[in-house]
UniProtKB/TrEMBL annotation:
<dbReference type="InterPro" id="IPR001279">
    <property type="entry name" value="Metallo-B-lactamas"/>
</dbReference>
<protein>
    <submittedName>
        <fullName>Glyoxylase-like metal-dependent hydrolase (Beta-lactamase superfamily II)</fullName>
    </submittedName>
</protein>
<dbReference type="GO" id="GO:0016787">
    <property type="term" value="F:hydrolase activity"/>
</dbReference>
<dbReference type="InterPro" id="IPR050662">
    <property type="entry name" value="Sec-metab_biosynth-thioest"/>
</dbReference>
<feature type="domain" description="Metallo-beta-lactamase">
    <location>
        <begin position="20"/>
        <end position="191"/>
    </location>
</feature>
<dbReference type="Pfam" id="PF00753">
    <property type="entry name" value="Lactamase_B"/>
</dbReference>
<dbReference type="InterPro" id="IPR036866">
    <property type="entry name" value="RibonucZ/Hydroxyglut_hydro"/>
</dbReference>
<keyword id="KW-0378">Hydrolase</keyword>
Length: 270
């Protein structure tokens, strides 16, 4: 059966969230699943609940998290309460919350490999650590891929302290191969707009890999020149950061430092 897909974008646009966090609803028959409830924003929560009702669903299968970051998970508790209250009124169970690493998200449980009926799942879980250690993607029937922060609609993801650039490059290569053989037909990211078509996806992922490899070479040159992390950030990103509004500059500089540190770890063999 076909899996329905609905996007609800939060109003939390910013330098790290692009146009805002994308929450998604998956539908199959009279059941709906919510992917990444997003920030703890009352208006966003209400919009999610309104879309759940609009789908005509009578049951909520669960809440799925692509990773633990607050802009994707802060709304979990309020959404779970609202959906579970409605479920209990109709005699159903509390709504489960699934995460790759339940230690990072309160009241969550380990995510299964398949979402929905085992004989006809609404999504397959693909572990894609790199941006964070607990990142995952959801592959829907027909080749639609929900990527969380593993692949954005534009720009590049930050490799967080619990992530790995080496693993991330492996993941990008794996996804690019999926696009090359036609397995992927569209990417639906945690931030930004969809990427449609295997060729466009292949080119986008190839560009991300090339960008990371170029940055690795630049960081290696900075290491040979005995530059510190801060000096490397200024050397590689200083001009770009000078055009960023001052209120966002420190946040983006910190993100750049994380990417530099990830490249140093990569060059150290980790």
């Amino acid at each position: 059966m076909t899996t329905g897909l609905h996007r609800v974008r939060a109003s939390n646009a910013g330098p790290m969230t692009l146009s805002g966090t994308n929450s998604y609803l998956l539908t199959r028959g009279e059941t709906v699943w919510v992917v990444d409830p997003g920030p703890a924003d009352r208006d966003h929560l209400q919009e999610l609940l309104d879309v759940v009702v609009a789908t005509g669903a009578h049951e909520v299968g669960g809440i799925v998290l692509t990773h633990h970051h607050a802009d994707h998970t802060d709304g979990v508790a309020a959404l779970q309460r609202a959906l579970s209250a409605a479920s209990r009124r109709s005699g159903r169970r509390e709504i489960p919350v699934w995460a790759a690493d339940p230690h990072l998200v309160p009241r969550s449980t380990p995510i299964p490999d398949l979402i929905g009926p085992m004989d006809d799942p609404v999504a397959e879980v693909i572990r894609t650590p790199g941006h964070t250690g607990d990142s995952l993607c959801l592959l829907l029937p027909g080749g639609r891929l929900l990527t969380g922060d593993t692949v954005l609609g534009h720009g590049t993801s930050v490799i967080m302290a619990d992530g790995s650039l080496r693993t991330y490059l492996d993941v990008l290569g794996f996804l690019r191969d999926m696009a090359a053989d036609g397995t992927l037909v569209s990417i639906h990211p945690g931030h930004g707009d969809e990427i449609e078509g295997p060729q466009a996806i292949h080119e986008h992922l190839g560009a991300l890999i090339e960008h990371r490899e170029a940055r690795i070479r630049e960081v290696q040159a900075a290491m040979w020149a005995d530059l510190t992390v801060d000096q490397t950030v200024e050397h590689l990103y200083g001009e770009q950061l000078s055009f960023v509004p001052e209120e966002h500059r420190a946040q983006l500089r910190s993100a750049a430092a994380l990417n530099v540190e990830a490249a140093i770890e990569y060059l150290s063999g980790n």
